[in-house]
Amino acid sequence: MHQTFDAALGINLLHANQDGADHNRACFDAWGITCFNLMSSPGAGKTALLEKTLAALSSELAIAVIEGDMTTELDADRLRQYDVPVIAINTGRSCHLDSKMVAGGIHRLEHDYTPSALDLVLVENVGNLVCPAEFEVGEHAKIALLSLTEGEDKPLKYPIMFQEADCLLVTKMDLAPYLDVDVRRIEQNVQQMNPRATIIPVSAKTGEGLQTWFDWVRSFRAQHSRLQVEAEQTLISPRL
């Protein structure tokens, strides 16, 4: 069976992107950085979540943000108020960040800051429920956001993002009294495709669930940091 030209081109693009993602991840590992890729549809609350995360954790973790947007720096400007490095990447007509774009952000981090002094890089991807999940950028964990206003069926209609997510944040929980949406059904729809995902209902407005999210970030960062140290020790240990 022969592949169509479009199918072969898509596979080649994904392979090339994966090579770039592996290179980006190697850079993060060499600097001792943990990287999260935040993905959602437009308006699900990625930037609001990042604002709360930077306010809560930037005093204990050295954090930088790579901020993806199609045309503006509006979200990047919101995050710069927290006095952390924020690298803005405009994707133009592209509906997602890819590894090459993030490599450009890494280059700017290396040129303008000291990456080895960072603990965490948060990548805010372009708002889209499809493409970002297919193109790795070098992250160590994928964080998906789904707002309560989007309904219960989105994990079933757009499965790839939810299948790939290490953590799902169900956002805008403060609107629950006004919506005919069952959070348990959302959780069930995700778990039937991805039982390993951690699911955390949150509200950036009321603070619901944010402490659980912060603890998840701390825990993942600590565990990943230990793995990085162990891997480095294995590389430098003399062979017997």
TrEMBL record:
Domain CobW/HypB/UreG nucleotide-binding as annotated: residue spans: 37-200
A Pfam family of this chain: cobW
Gene Ontology BP term (one): protein maturation
Keywords: GTP-binding, Hydrolase, Metal-binding, Nickel, Nucleotide-binding, Zinc
Recorded superkingdom: Bacteria
GO molecular function terms listed in the Swiss-Prot or TrEMBL record: GTP binding; GTPase activity; nickel cation binding; zinc ion binding
InterPro entries: CobW/HypB/UreG_nucleotide-bd, Hyd_mat_HypB, P-loop_NTPase
Record-stated family: Belongs to the SIMIBI class G3E GTPase family. HypB/HupM subfamily.
Listed name of the protein: Hydrogenase nickel incorporation protein HypB
Biological source species: Myxacorys almedinensis A
